[in-house]
């Protein structure tokens, strides 16, 4: 399948999540997203209001991260964070799974953690993508994490934050699609730095791409940096 720039842009969640980003960076990213037809601008919780104001009247949606980047917040805190993100203008949430508790075998707690955010989000018609950090998981654990997200009612499973344990790989995405692809969507994120990689993940079956250097990717260049 051949993808156009516009088609790829429309499924990009443009990530502006680094610690040092200022209001000026958010405004610049929002302007780029509107200009290039990017699907969503994904921001930190305290940037949601600004992002919503900057994107008002455009087709680009506001996505806010929850429990980012470690996923180790209490479930009650994640749910409250989700509520405030939605109040501030988020229509999509990317929440980080509690990988430590998952690795400890506390699967019921992890599912409850996800379900708490999903309950808040779905009450407002907001979708939830669960970040698994696939680079920290075995193949069997990736499949198990997908099933937990599915049981909790999430809309997407997502590979990684891009900041811990590596990013998207075709192997991880294949497991995710094979496990829950019939009922959930998959987002590849972390380390997508050129057009070929972006298109390859879409051809594989991903519905969204998390990218930090969207213009470089769309223009056929090679993105720089660590996201």
* Gyration radius, rounded: 16 Å
Task: Please write the CATH class name.
Answer: Alpha Beta
Low-confidence stretches: none
CATH topology: TIM Barrel
Biggest sheet: strands side by side, in what order?
A: 1-2-3-4-5-6-7-8
Molecular shape: globular
- Spell the H/E element sequence: HEHEHEHEHHEHEHEHEH
What oligomeric state best describes the polypeptide chains here? single chain
SSE-based structural type: alpha/beta
Helix content: 40-55%
Mean pLDDT figure: 96
Distance between the termini: 26 Å
Written description of the protein model:
This protein has 227 residues and is an alpha/beta fold. The chain has one domain: Alpha-Beta Barrel (TIM Barrel), CATH 3.20.20. Helices cover 45% and strands 16% of the residues. It contains 10 helices and 8 strands. It has helices at 5-10, 23-36, 48-55, 75-87, 99-103, 107-123, 139-151, 170-180, 195-204, 214-218, and strands at 12-16, 40-43, 61-66, 92-96, 127-131, 156-158, 185-189, 208-211. Strands 1-2-3-4-5-6-7-8 form an 8-stranded parallel beta barrel, surrounded by 7 helices. The two termini are 26 Å apart.
